[in-house]
Protein 1
Amino acid sequence: MALLEWKQAFSVGNASVDHEHKQMIEQINQLYELLGQPTTAVTIEAVLGDIHAYISAHFALEERLMRTAGYAEYENHKDDHEDLLDQIHELMFSFSENPDIGRKLLENKLSDWFGRHFASFDARLHRELG
Ligand SMILES: [Fe+2]
Ligand SMILES: [Fe+2]
């Protein structure tokens, strides 16, 4: 079963942003599935690297949009992005010790971030800036 599921409540009202958020959910689900199977550290590392790159690029775009607009919630929003990137780094370390620990981290901590961030910070941002 997939770890995360897209819900209409996550929509920020911008189809291309929603599409990127869906891609992020899809990538996390693929990682979760991978961590439950016999696999290699090299494969997990490659998948984590792709996820990190995709999410970083997405965050960079949002942060540029906010800076350009002089958006008031910029700092708090950026802090929440950094919180996720820190969690991904933590995951990178933990999986190399033990994939089960990585899987638990995904279930217990990281998975909550997505719906919460999309429905709060991102919804406010795109309501104001398009
Ligand atoms: Fe976003
Ligand atoms: Fe965001």
Note: The chain has a mean pLDDT of 93.
Protein 2
Amino acid sequence: MTEMYANQTVVVTGTAGFVGSHLTDGLLANGARVIGVDNFLTGRASNLEHLKENPNFTFIESDVTLPTINYLTDQPKIDAIFHLASPASPPRYQEHPVETYLVNSYATHQLLQYIKNVHPRAKFIFASTSEVYGEPHEHPQKEGYWGNVNPNGVRSCYDEAKRLGETICGVHQRDFNLDVRIMRIFNTYGPRMDPRDGRVIPQFITQALAHQPYTIYGDGSQTRSYCYVNDLVDGILKFGSMLGLSGITVNLGNPGEYAVKQTAEIIHQLVHPNTQPEFEFRTLPGDDPTRRQPDITLAIDKLGWQPTIDFRTGIKHTLEYFQELATY
Ligand SMILES: NC(=O)c1ccc[n+]([C@@H]2O[C@H](COP(=O)([O-])OP(=O)(O)OC[C@H]3O[C@@H](n4cnc5c(N)ncnc54)[C@H](O)[C@@H]3O)[C@@H](O)[C@H]2O)c1
């Protein structure tokens, strides 16, 4: 097997989070030495437990909105920084709005200034989001679509901060000639998601396992596209390692589209086959997007990547993780 990151030193911010911990595993498996940084705002130490004895993994507990030099003090060599630190679920970022806009904007600036001043040959890969498309007028969403986002609503501490993060990336790529790449991640799910973080998949799985009705906001006809985390990490690893991708923004997600109510029905059938699900309908929160589906043509063309794990298979793996958690 070729190791995409052999002999490289890579920093992952948000390493204790859901995606960050899987990305850290993927980088280590591909030969990297990983420096993971996290302040446990929404991440969990248990996500890194298996790496405790790994000599190629170093953990630094720090807030990445601090000047980067404060915590990455004397690193002689850094080949890439993946900036994933940020609350990602609406309840979590609404609970931490200031931390959310700072980590996506000011921390992005701090990290890029550090690269510019200390490691100008390092790549910077920013975890943006499908939320930059807001309530889209285009469907599915291509990277060239600029979005339709409320600048001052209940989700804007996240959406607009990611958009500003993208601006900061663009400035450093164009004006300071750094290798900066932006990935717009669409809904991702899998083991190590926090069961309490309020995202749709953990919420429905938790409710299925507890024999509770499924909470549906609105009538549940709004759609989402769900990508299994292993697929996403494969895409991120390729995007971060291939040459000639500076300045590129790419959608990473699974185009399979499901209505939210249908999502609950599928999970219900896997957990309680041959029974009927019960629903509890609630008012749709502000600025909830009605449709979400990535156009991944660019990822297919540039990276030769597309998801391979179908929704039911991914949900079965995720269920196993949640069932294990429930037995502790
Ligand atoms: N999971 C998804 O479906 C999804 C979709 C789109 C974009 N993303 C993006 O991917 C990234 C990871 O998302 P996730 O689902 O793993 O979320 P997560 O909440 O599980 O992980 C985020 C991690 O960042 C850490 N963090 C937050 N602020 C920090 C700070 N100031 N300093 C240091 N660490 C900090 C948290 O403690 C946590 O460990 C985020 O940037 C998110 O916006 C995720």
Note: The pocket of nicotinamide-adenine-dinucleotide is lined by residues 13-14, 16-20, 37-43, 63-65, 84-88, 99, 103, 107, 127, 129, 185, 187-188 (CB under 6 Å).
Protein 3
Amino acid sequence: MKILLKNITENLMNYEGSIECDNLINNGDEIDFIEPMKFIGTLKKGMDFVEISGKVISKFTTNCHLCGEKTEKELEFEIFETYRREPGEEEYPLVGDEIDFDDMILENFRLNLPVKILCKDDCKGICTKCGKNLNVEKCNCSNIEKTNPAFDVLNKLIK
Ligand SMILES: [Zn+2]
Ligand SMILES: [Zn+2]
């Protein structure tokens, strides 16, 4: 998503764009974008700065942290960033006559990704003993250690 400064024709202008991004690895998770991310918001131009503010919508697939199955996710997040000729802390440099927002948006995307992405809130994960996907089938293993007879009683109660 690039814009020439001269095309920001108003002090505050509505702006929409899309961000083509390659698939990426985030903390070991493979993120495959299903479609370009979308930006909807505003650009504000001053003498030596441009502010971008709005929301970004992304759709991607990745593997569930618990069961490992491919899962489709939508992530929406807000951005508010400033590009300035002489950038302050946490600002981006405004160089030349054009701004390319892609890297900044990708950085924000990474920051907004949940640490653990699950296929669903109540994903049951994989049995650590037999490896079955417990969302799909039950297994007969018990994950409670059997060394203490008290656990056997608990086990029966749970069943
Ligand atoms: Zn899962
Ligand atoms: Zn099992």
Note: The helical segments are 102-112, 149-158.
Protein 4
Amino acid sequence: MTRDFRILVVDDELAMRESLAGWLHKEGYAADCAAGGAEALELLGGRTYDLLLVDIKMPGMDGLELLRKMKETHPQTLVVIITAYGSIESAVQAMKQGAQDYLLKPFDPEELILLIAKLARQRELIRENQALKERLREQERTGWGDLVADSKAMRAVMRLVEEVAASDSPVLITGETGTGKEMVARALHAASQRAYGPFVPINCGGQNESLLESELFGHERGAFTGAVQARRGRLEMADGGTLFLDEVGEIPPKMQVDLLRVLEEKAFTRLGGSQTVHSDFRLVSATHRDLAALVRAGEVRQDFFYRINVIAVRLPPLRERDDDIGLLAQYFLLRYGRETGKTVEGLTPEALRILNAYAWPGNVRELKNVMERAVVIARQPLIGKNELTFLQPDQESGPELISLEEMERRHIQRVLEAEEGNITHAAQVLGIDRRTLTRKLRRQEAK
Ligand SMILES: Nc1ncnc2c1ncn2[C@@H]1O[C@H](COP(=O)(O)OP(=O)(O)OP(=O)(O)O)[C@@H](O)[C@H]1O
Ligand SMILES: [Mg+2]
């Protein structure tokens, strides 16, 4: 295995340098050697290292001085100090000056390799989170406002929306609940020539028929009991802009006939009125239902369906947008972090895995709520599986039957996590000595 993690070994003792570099090479790390501080600085000028392994006691420039100098020019490079038992204070001082960790001589190669594996994982994590942030920044430059999407499926949607924005043809947006239908409708409006006109949404579901009718068409004074004043309807308000008929499948068939006429003539009368009102709007509709099936069932008129479905935009469910889940999660995380003043930076790989494995019946809206909740309960900058416990795969199938070895593996991981990766503490909790734990971890890693 080759790893994308380059190490520089700095030690004045040739034998030590060579054996360290030898172990590292065997583990698949790229490692170079320097015989002292001056040579190390020279090498640092020429290439980037992820980690410096530095002996603290060296003639000339010692480890502490090297640490001080290189932290000025290479603050991102990690440093692990190697020190003899007698000079532990200087190791402590090195940690204060920005070293990540120290090793006491003599040490077990396994201990060194485990420490480096841990640092390499951390580094990879930071890189992954930075890459996500970078992708988000690029997103912000695309002019799609708050709409975050990078998956192939969503890119195709965005391309289609950009193509059809300029025309005045009716658009029907379909997709499961929470997939972003309204968001896309607004983006479509913003990308159209009507962007400076109004965007007028109306939810056609869950309203009684006469209320919906007067909401849409407006009414004259005295049109029905309670109509003490004349009122403009949504059709009128949308003049010069976009009318968004949300849950369009819920419109009763009789009103579909009336709407069809409005769409053809761009004119109508208010309820109880006789004067023709002209309104020039672009129609965008949305539904989470299968309209073709509703046509077959006789709930939606075929002519109405054809009229509103000139351009069809299908939003894929979130589970079909693997590339978007991490990106959206990061986006909501940073946003809620900002709003609540909490320092949140990203997700652990495990958290990402959980998010990717989940089915997301509530789609983006659900992910948004989950991240809000995670930020509220988070006690550290990285959101991990502890913040997502309520998302764990369903327990219906009962406890999993696993081998003793697997149980041991999971238990060790749990303890290690609780002890924040500290092997000595974890070994104490497990009641075994540090070397035994190191060996077990080593064996697990090899699998
Ligand atoms: N691509 C996206 N980027 C950022 N936020 C999104 C995205 N898609 C959806 N959201 C957010 O998710 C929530 C649900 O989106 P929206 O209301 O547009 O979905 P919908 O498909 O209209 O849902 P419903 O069918 O329940 O009406 C909103 O808060 C929206 O801001
Ligand atoms: Mg909606």
Note: The domain at 404-446 is CATH 1.10.10 (Arc Repressor Mutant, subunit A).
